[in-house]
Amino acid sequence: MAKNDNLHNAKEAKKDEFYTQLSDIENELKHYKEHFKDKVIFCNCDDPKYSNFHRYFRLNFEVLSLKSLITTHYNKDGDSYAEKLTREMVAKNKEYISPSLLDKDTIRERERNDFQKNPPQITLKQGGDFRSDECIKFLKQSDIVVTNPPFSLFREYVAQLVEYDKKFVIIGNQNAITYKEIFKLIKNNQIWLGSSLSYCAFKVPSDYEEKTTRFWIDDNGQKWRSMGNICWFTNLDIKKRHENLETIASYYKDSSKYPKYDNYDAINVDKTSEIPLDYEGVMGVPITFLDKHNPEQFDILALGIVGSIEFSCNKKMEILDKNGLPTGKFTFNAKGTLYRKFNPKTDEKPAFQDCETGELYSSIYARILIKNKNPKEKQ
């Protein structure tokens, strides 16, 4: 990687330095407790002084029966450090997992991870970048990685976890589902969504650049940023993954609710709650469906975008603007997306117009193509 690329990526990673709230961490990780027993946990995008992932595992070290906890801090400007807490250290001295009562005001106001005693710091000469040789050495020692990685480096981060065959529970933007590298793993049942799917707020450093949207400063001067729909990605099995989706929707009672795409043999479903469980063919469903996906109930076939599926027609279309007006720009096959005929009753505006027939079409955002393994009988 070129030096300038490294510098750019370092800056992007610094922008992504969000501190996840302890309540959000607890709400998700309670579903994985049996997985953590006797394991080495690695938090490789976390400042031990401030990270609530680090704090969660320190406070619950004995409850979870951890073998050890490794946390690495990232510093783009030079040396950084890591901390390693082991079962043997905790057995000899409980102060490693006991919050400092003398510093309770500091904990309350700054949420620093002040404990009565901290593990010795291990100097990291390569700045604590998760891609560095030093951090990869820790990665090889670990069993499960748990953290909030830089969203701008999400593809590369997940690729590293897969390369080293690591178990993980990590936070990501829901749109990462549509990355071809990530979706391939989802389709192949190598990763899936965790228990929580929500709109989350994150604490950001004091030098974080202020934004015009989804950014605020609280009464204590703490900067906050929200990232829309956030989800957890994991390859650890959880109970939710084996729960069947239940809906009352039926294709055969009202097939007009499920128009077919013009360029792929599948019906369109706008909401997960409207998936007809009696339909035996292919369905295009929203990406939020993955929050309810049970691999024993449905097969994931493809992502409804160019490069993921083969489209069956190649109409020349004029692209329409945000008001549905002609732009004088043209495309074939609707720029590689699924599309269907425009319905003025349900669609806000058309996206394309057929150059030969003048028919209007709606473009459908990132649908996941699925098929029910055991559809119900037609009603």
General description of the model:
The structure is a single chain. The chain has 379 residues and is of the alpha+beta class. The protein folds into two domains: 3-241, 3-Layer(aba) Sandwich (Rossmann fold), CATH 3.40.50; 245-379, no CATH class. Helix content is 19%, strand content 27%. The chain has nine helices and 19 strands. A hairpin with a 5-residue loop joins strand 14 and strand 15. It starts with a helix and ends in a 7-residue tail after the last strand. Mean pLDDT is 86; it is low at 1-17 and 106-110.
Count, helices: 9
Q: Uncertain runs with pLDDT below 50, 5 residues or more? A: 1-17, 106-110
Describe the largest sheet: 10 strands, mixed
Shape, per Cα inertia axes: elongated
Structural class: alpha+beta
pLDDT averaged residue by residue? 86
Task: Give the termini distance in whole angstroms.
Answer: 59 Å
List the helices and strands and how they pair.
Layout: H1 3-15, E1 19-20, H2 22-29, H3 33-36, E2 40-43, H4 52-59, E3 68-72, E4 80-86, H5 87-92, H6 104-110, E5 121-124, H7 133-141, E6 144-147, H8 154-163, E7 167-173, H9 180-187, E8 192-204, E9 215-217, E10 223-234, E11 267-268, E12 282-285, E13 298-303, E14 316-320, E15 326-332, E16 338-341, E17 352-354, E18 360-364, E19 368-372
Parallel strand pairs: 2-3, 2-6, 6-7, 11-12
Antiparallel strand pairs: 1-8, 3-4, 4-5, 7-10, 8-10, 9-10, 12-19, 13-19, 14-15, 14-17, 16-18, 17-18
